[in-house]
Amino acid sequence: MIYIIGIIITSFLAIILSTKKEKSIADKILFVWLCVILVQLILFSIISSDEYLKFPYILGLEIPFPLLHGPLLFLYILALTSVQFYRPKLLFHFLPFAIGILSIIPFLMLSLEEKILVYQNEGEGFEILSTVIFVGIILSGITYSVLSLRALAIYKKRIKDNFSSIEKINLQWLLRLVFGLSIIWVLVFFADDKIIFSSVVLFVVFIGYYGIKQVGIFTNKHALELSLTTESKEIIEQCIAEPQITKYEKSALTDSQLKAIHGELVHLMKQKKLFLTPELTLTMVAEELEIHPNILSQVINTVEQKNFFDYVNTLRIEEFKDRIAKYDYQKYTLLSLAYECGFNSKTSFNRNFKNLMGKSPSEYLKECKAMLD
Q1: Where along the chain do its domains lie?
Q2: Contacts from 285-291 at CB under 8 Å and sequence distance 24+?
Q3: Topology match between the domains 2-227 and 243-368
Q4: Could you say which DSSP state residue 170 is in?
Q5: What was the pLDDT predicted at 173?
Q6: Using CA atoms, how far apart are residues 282 and 292, in angstroms rounded to an integer?
Q7: What is the pLDDT of residues 241-298, one digit of tens each?
């Protein structure tokens, strides 16, 4: 029954995605991935019952499908976080799947009666091939889980170098997607096929849940288009396109230059308090200083020993502490004062405050005896 539910949900999500207008590359990859899951669920639901005796020609077709999940997850993440997706060499990620298809040709060449006999005897005669494919599937799962986590880590570092607020663009739900698929890979070691495919069904539900919750995946508007300004979207495209490893190669600043620019930055922040702007970006500050964003990023990283995100939010926390010490601000609520200081959500404020101060805002207020409502 659970497989039928999985087939229905997967079909529903695939249909919704296929009818989406102006589909992005990421949308197309997700659609292909859902189709792969759908076919695999259908094949398994047939093979796990006696129904496969009526359709023996499908036996063996399901074997190489697990080799597609890792590459499709990785390419989906890459399409959302990096322009590197457009490189032709990425097609080589499907080479293991192609090899898997070639490896099962001897089995596919068997007569229908022989195929049924092999399945009824749990793969007798193909033990070595089964072991090799199993090891390949495990290695694929581990490799692409690591590659996916690395891609997300690189993306997170880049946006923190360019934005002071990342809640709307951090793609945290993709991290949960990677962990969800990783759990399935772990189950491959210890569980039988029924448990594994039951977890696949739950994984599809997981995709559907976050697809509906995360604006833009199954709708006609992309999440970034709804939450960011045109300037911010351009900055995202620029920062994910340029590897951060080489960002300073054209700007070898001396110590005196670093200190001078840092002095101008500190003066600017004190005078104009740019950090009070919730959607402040590195480019906006660089324009005020009339320098290239890469140079400003180098100054902040070198002198402050912080990325742009941490630097700006540290200033916001300091501003919050200064304001609660003043009598005029004692009539404010905690959250309203956080907004006044440049934070755009309670979660962001609490997380950044605790990271910097080692305690929650409420604990800090109790210690300093601030009388906020």
Answers
A1: 2-227, 243-368
A2: 289/261, 289/264, 289/265, 291/261
A3: no
A4: S
A5: 84
A6: 10
A7: 554 434 444 457 888 999 999 999 999 999 999 999 999 999 999 999 999 999 999 9
Taking the C-alpha atoms of residue 166 and residue 130, their distance in angstroms, rounded to an integer, is 45
pLDDT score of 4 more than 50: yes
Are the CB atoms for 34 and 14 separated by under 8 Å? yes
CA distance to 144, 272, 340, 341, per residue, from 288 (Å): 42, 10, 22, 20
Q: Which two tokens stand for residue 60?
A: 């063996």
First to last CA, the chain: 53
| 0.85 exceeded by pTM | no
Which CATH class name applies to 243-368?
A: mainly alpha
Measured CA to CA in angstroms, residue 266 lies from 70, 274, 275, 280, 286 at distances of 46, 11, 11, 16, 13
Residue 228 backbone phi and psi in degrees, to 5: -120, 155
Structure tokens at 119: 């399945």
Element holding 355 (H helix, E strand):
helix 346-357
CA distance 15 to 211: 13
Give yes or no for a contact between 128 and 164, defined as CB atoms under 8 angstroms apart: no
Q: Does residue 32 contact residue 88 with C-beta atoms inside 8 Å?
A: no
Give every CB contact of residue 117 below 8 A, 6+ residues apart in sequence.
124
Let me know if 330 is exposed, middle or buried by CB neighbors in 10 A (0-12, 13-18, 19+): middle
Structure-token pair, residue 125? 């005669």
Judged on CB neighbours under 10 Å (0-12, 13-18, 19+), 223 is middle
**What CATH code would you report for 2-227?**
1.20.1070
Burial of 34 (0-12, 13-18, 19+ CB in 10 A): buried
